[in-house]
Amino acid sequence: AQSVTQPDIHITVSEGASLELRCNYSYGATPYLFWYVQSPGQGLQLLLKYFSGDTLVQGIKGFEAEFKRSQSSFNLRKPSVHWSDAAEYFCAVGAYNNNDMRFGAGTRLTVKP
Amino acid sequence: DTGVSQDPRHKITKRGQNVTFRCDPISEHNRLYWYRQTLGQGPEFLTYFQNEAQLEKSRLLSDRFSAERPKGSFSTLEIQRTEQGDSAMYLCASHGGNSPLHFGNGTRLTVT
Q1: Which of A22, A71, A94, B106 has the fewest CB atoms within 10 Å, counting from its CB?
Q2: Is the Cβ of B98 closer than 8 Å to some Cβ of chain A?
Q3: B55-106 confidence digits (pLDDT tens)
Q4: Burial track A48-72 (b if 16+ CB lie within 10 A, e otherwise)
Q5: Distance from CA of B18 to the nearest CA of A (A)
Q6: For chain A, what is the radius of gyration of the CA atoms?
C-alpha cells in the first residue's frame, strides 16, 4: 500500500535562508508525486508535481523538488525563504487518476525575521 | 473566481444533529473528491465521484455519512447523528483529465 512520510513535523528557518523539506514515499508502481501548501484555515494549493521526465521539477513561488527513485524521496527545496512561506506543507503520492492519493502528515514551516 | 468553492466555511453543531456541506467544483472538472483533515494530519480520502457516479468510498466513510452529486456538478456531504469525533476540516477537490487536484478552502465542522 502506498504511504508518505514527512519526517519533520515542524521546521523553523530564518528569512532568507535556504529550505529543504523531506518526503519519503512507498508506492508499488510509478509514483505521481505532489507538494501542496496550506495556509491556516485554507485549502491546499499545488506547488508542483512530478509525473515523469526530468527528476528536478520547478514549481510556483520559487520552489523546486527532486525525485530520487533510489531513495524513494521527493524533497522540496527553496533557496531563499520569505516570511510569506510560513505555512503547512504536504507531500502526496498518487496514481494517474488521483483516486488513491495519500498525503503525509505535513511539515509546519515557521519563518523567523 | 473559478476555483472550487465550499459552503459553509464553518459549522458548529451539537452532537446528534445532522449537517450538510456543499461543494461546487471547477465547472469543467468531471471528478470530485471529499477528504477529511484533522488537526496535525494530512487530508484523508473519503469518497469520489466521476460525473454523478460515486465510484469509491473509503472505510472511513461510516453509514452516517452520505455523499451525492445528483447532476454531476455540485456535491453534498451529509453527516447524520454527528459525533464529537466528526469534528474536522472537510475538503472538497476536483480535477479533470490529467490535471492535479484543485482544493476548496474547506468546511470546518465543530461538534459540541
Answers
A1: A71
A2: yes
A3: 888 888 889 999 999 988 999 999 999 999 999 999 999 988 777 789 999 9
A4: bbbeeeeeebebeeebbbbbeeeee
A5: 23
A6: 13
